[in-house]
Amino acid sequence: MDIKTASALRRLRLISAPEAISFLLLIVCSVLKRTTDFNAVPAMGMIHGVLFVLYVLFWADAWNRTKWPVKTAALYFVLSVLPTGGFFAERMLRREAEASLIAARARKEGVVNA
């Protein structure tokens, strides 16, 4: 994996958890708006919207660089629209990055899979 691909995956991984947290906070703010006089939905909605747009941009860049199959790319996109999906995406991306790092080190040392 080249450095640009690794950077794209890292950006997507780093934005996925904050995007999930903002989604959950937006849901909490929506409930509070309906049940109390507290209304943080406009501010939280804008924060979540910015994070979601960043997630989609980073997802598209990662998909372009990694050449994921459509099924894998669709999974990462669907995880972005689920309230806790960003946490699962972050975990999956971390595992993918670790596996590619191990594979790169093995190639560098001349280890061949049998």
UniProtKB/TrEMBL annotation:
Protein origin, superkingdom: Bacteria
PANTHER family for this protein: MEMBRANE PROTEIN, MEMBRANE PROTEIN-RELATED
Membrane topology term: Multi-pass membrane protein
Domain DUF3817: start-end pairs: 9-95
Name of this chain's protein: Membrane protein
Listed transmembrane segments: 39-60, 72-89
Keywords, in A-Z order: Cell membrane, Membrane, Transmembrane, Transmembrane helix
Cellular location(s): Cell membrane
Pfam families attached to this UniProt entry: DUF3817
